[in-house]
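Please decode residue identities from the backbone states below.
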């Protein structure tokens, strides 16, 4: 089984027996000695061997006590003399929870698809792909949190994209849109990093026009120009792009004009009780006006009440999503009946 992620350049698995290569300045701590056998020492580095991964894990716990630093080390596989760099924090997480690293590497996921409806004709327009483990034993939030702590975000993000495109090929018709979340921080050089996605699209023979890639809420965007280059790379390949969970930060006319998304997905906090909450109504009026100026489609997510649905229809929102319309399912319903 391969142990390297060729796309994000990180090794998933730690050799059962091996060595830890530490910078000499990191190997000294007042009043203590690193709790592994020292087998090599130079002014620049020290090499400590371990007999099993549990011994390495306990050594890290003992050495760093409560605070794990973020500097980098090398892990040496003594059987083949190959080594790879890894952050101490990432190493610790992978030793603590190897079953989660294996789950991400194996890609044992499936997509649950939640319907998105055209609010003008009450017909299904597409679906959002939501990642789930096949045995449903690990909640998505926990999995993504672990991926962030262990440095496996890029790998998980790519596995999720593949799972979504595969679900599109198996369960949806040509012309049905599928909305796929992605993390901009996992895409370093768009022209290179997105080749994997474009290869998947060709593999499953999907029309790029049916794919909508959306920036997720949890991602804090500091480099707007980088995000713009990612969106432009998707669009140049014939795909659509969306800003997910839009709130006040994304709703400025300047930001929307710069990024030019095809869709805005309004944060559910602005949809909740929109039929009675005047503050939410004011925000929605403003977003609709800005989107209209830039010819951007607006999608309201998190619709749970008929009253919310009806108010948004009167406002002229293009698309709707939420439990009122339908819940995520592994095999989605193709026809929906709304009151």
């Amino acid at each position: 089984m391969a142990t390297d992620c060729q796309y994000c350049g990180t090794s998933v698995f730690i050799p059962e027996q091996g060595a830890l290569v530490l910078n000499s300045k990191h190997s000294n701590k007042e009043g203590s000695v690193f709790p592994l056998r020292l087998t090599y020492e130079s002014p620049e580095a020290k090499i400590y061997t371990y007999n099993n991964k549990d011994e390495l894990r306990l050594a890290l716990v003992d050495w760093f006590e409560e605070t794990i630093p973020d500097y980098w080390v090398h892990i040496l596989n003594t059987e083949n003399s190959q080594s790879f760099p890894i952050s101490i924090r990432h190493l610790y997480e992978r030793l603590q929870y190897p079953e989660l690293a294996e789950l991400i590497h194996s890609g044992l996921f499936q997509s649950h698809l939640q319907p998105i409806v055209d609010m003008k004709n009450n017909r299904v327009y597409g679906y959002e792909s939501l990642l789930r483990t096949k045995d449903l034993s690990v909640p998505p939030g926990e999995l993504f949190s672990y991926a962030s702590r262990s440095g496996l975000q890029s790998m998980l993000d790519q596995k999720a994209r593949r799972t979504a495109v595969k679900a599109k090929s198996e369960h949806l018709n040509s012309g049905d849109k599928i909305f796929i979340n992605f993390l901009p921080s996992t895409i370093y050089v768009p022209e290179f990093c997105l080749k994997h996605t474009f290869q998947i699209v060709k593999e499953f023979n999907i029309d790029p026009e049916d794919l909508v890639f959306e920036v997720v809420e949890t991602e804090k965007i500091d480099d707007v120009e980088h995000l713009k280059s990612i969106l432009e790379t998707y669009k140049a390949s014939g795909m659509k792009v969306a800003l997910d969970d839009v709130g006040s930060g994304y709703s400025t006319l300047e930001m929307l004009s710069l990024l030019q998304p095809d869709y805005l997905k309004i944060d559910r906090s602005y949809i909740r009780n929109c039929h009675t909450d005047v503050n939410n109504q004011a925000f929605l009026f403003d977003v609709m006006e800005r989107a209209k100026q830039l010819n951007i489609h607006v999608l309201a997510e998190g619709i749970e009440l008929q009253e919310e649905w009806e108010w948004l229809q009167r406002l002229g929102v293009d698309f709707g999503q939420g439990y009122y319309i339908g819940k995520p399912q592994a095999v989605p319903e193709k026809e929906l009946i709304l009151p």
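Observation: The chain has a mean pLDDT of 87.
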